[in-house]
Design goal:
Layout (H helix, E strand, L loop, with lengths): L4 E2 L2 H14 L7 H13 L1 E7 L2 E15 L2 E13 L8 H15 L4 E5 L12 E2 L3 E6 L14 E3 L4 H9 L8 E3 L4 H8 L3 E7 L5 E8 L7 E8 L4 H11 L7 E3 L15 H10 L7 E4 L2 E5 L2 H6 L8 E8 L13 E7 L4 E4 L7 E5 H9 L4 H7 L2 E2 L2 H10 L12
Parallel strand pairs: 4-5, 12-13, 16-19
Antiparallel strand pairs: 1-2, 2-3, 3-4, 3-9, 5-15, 6-15, 7-13, 7-14, 8-10, 10-11, 11-12, 16-17, 17-18, 19-20
Helix pairs in contact: 2-5, 4-5
């Protein structure tokens, strides 16, 4: 039986606001409550009731994910919230299955989410994404020049422009765009001491910008967005960060720009780490962890986005989808034949004589995205097959790290 019902502002806003305060996602201010109201208004949320009142919510937001050079429709799971009253009753699980089924009906090919801890979402077919690199350093140690021209200051009214820039930004494999144009307006409302700086071309269009949080006088300031249309513009943005070093002693960049290794542009990074450690602080100049998971929703669309530059290959795919155990949307498990080449396709049933890959949806998603090679996933995840097939898959899916570049 269906557990979820659509969100209704008049009936549910007070309950969801209380729920978000209970889990610490918003504070007690009216401003953050109003931002939540608008967040709920623009996405799709399903709620589950306990004692006649909403005590669990799963929220999704439409977007797209880039697979090499193909954009595929994405369902971003942008909020899974359970109140103190609704815990441990299977409500979030039931709602998530229903939400993914709705997304499939609307044409989503991939689902993605940020997780609170690894493991919970594996049972819904999600596989862990790639490592994200987070660097904390003295901005004065950047080796890029400070820009000769002053930036423009951006405020909350400029956030739709930042969203438009993020939508057309320089992107890499795995990068995500989340559709609602007021996304950063809400981020502004939820960010502690927000700030944004950027550059406009002569016609006034925003060409590159950064967005972040000014914590304390001397930092660490956290920069969550570095958006730019052309690769070289990232150097001018980092020049702005360097200029902050007159006052700010520590800046954290939460997401490396595509193709860039930030350590190349930092003077004496090893010394900085040593000084921090000797001062009794953390020596974590550079932290790296995966906090996102993804899963394929539409197998044909995802395989169709594969255009091999290596020799064509075919294999049987025995795909297990644990989401089928929940009832509702049955998932994408089953036996298929996959043919990879300049054009790739999938068909039902396994052709006789083909080597067979036996794999869960989560592990296959990781292979398809290029998170880890088949031979590595055979060691640590739910994937097995003949060694020659695994070697051929390693070669076929040799892809750049799939970095979303967008937090949700």
């Amino acid at each position: 039986a269906m557990v979820g019902r659509p969100y209704d502002e008049e009936r549910d806003l007070a309950a969801v606001t209380r729920m978000w305060r209970e889990v610490g996602w918003i504070d007690d201010s009216d401003g953050q409550a109003e931002a939540l109201r608008r967040f709920l208004d623009r996405g799709t949320a399903l709620l589950a009731d306990v004692h006649g009142e909403a005590e669990c919510m799963v929220h999704r937001t439409p977007g797209s994910i880039r697979y090499v050079d193909t954009d595929l429709p994405l369902c971003a799971i942008s909020g899974v919230t359970t109140s103190h009253v609704g815990r441990r009753q299977g409500l979030a699980s039931a709602l998530l299955v229903e939400v993914l089924g709705e997304a499939v009906e609307e044409g989503a090919a991939v689902a993605s989410l940020g997780f609170f801890e690894q493991g919970f979402y594996d049972r819904f077919g999600f596989g862990t994404g790639t490592y994200e690199h987070r660097l904390t350093f003295d901005p004065a140690s950047l080796t890029v020049p400070v820009p000769r021209r002053p930036p423009v200051r951006l405020g909350r009214d400029d956030m739709p422009e930042l969203h438009a820039l993020m939508t057309r930004r320089h992107r890499g494999h795995g990068s995500v765009v989340v559709d609602p144009p007021d996304w950063f307006d809400l981020e502004w409302a939820w960010t502690e001491k927000p700030f944004a700086l950027g550059f406009r071309e002569s016609g006034g269009r925003l060409t590159h910008a950064l967005f972040g949080s000014m914590k304390d006088e001397h930092g660490p300031w956290e920069i969550s967005v570095l958006a730019h249309e052309e690769p070289t513009q990232v150097l001018e943005l980092l020049g702005l960060v360097r200029a902050l070093g007159d006052q700010v002693n520590a800046v954290t960049i939460a997401d490396e720009p595509p193709g860039v290794q930030l350590q190349d542009l930092i003077r004496e990074p090893v010394r900085q780490r040593r000084v921090a450690r000797l001062a009794g602080g953390s020596d974590a100049l550079h932290q790296s962890i995966a906090e996102q998971q993804d899963r394929i929703l539409d197998l044909a669309a995802c395989i169709g986005a594969v255009h091999l530059r290596t020799p064509p290959m075919a294999f049987g795919l025995r795909l297990r989808d644990p989401i089928a155990d929940f009832g509702g949307w049955p998932g994408i498990g089953g036996e298929r034949t996959v043919r990879l080449g300049e054009e790739s396709m999938v068909a039902d049933g396994i052709d006789e004589g083909l080597p067979v890959l036996d794999v869960s949806v989560g592990a296959f998603t990781r292979l398809w995205l290029g998170v880890r090679p088949a031979t590595g996933l055979a060691l640590t995840d739910d994937l097995s097959g003949p060694p020659a097939l695994l070697d051929a898959l390693d070669e076929a899916f040799r892809l750049p790290p799939p970095r979303a570049g967008w937090s949700y």
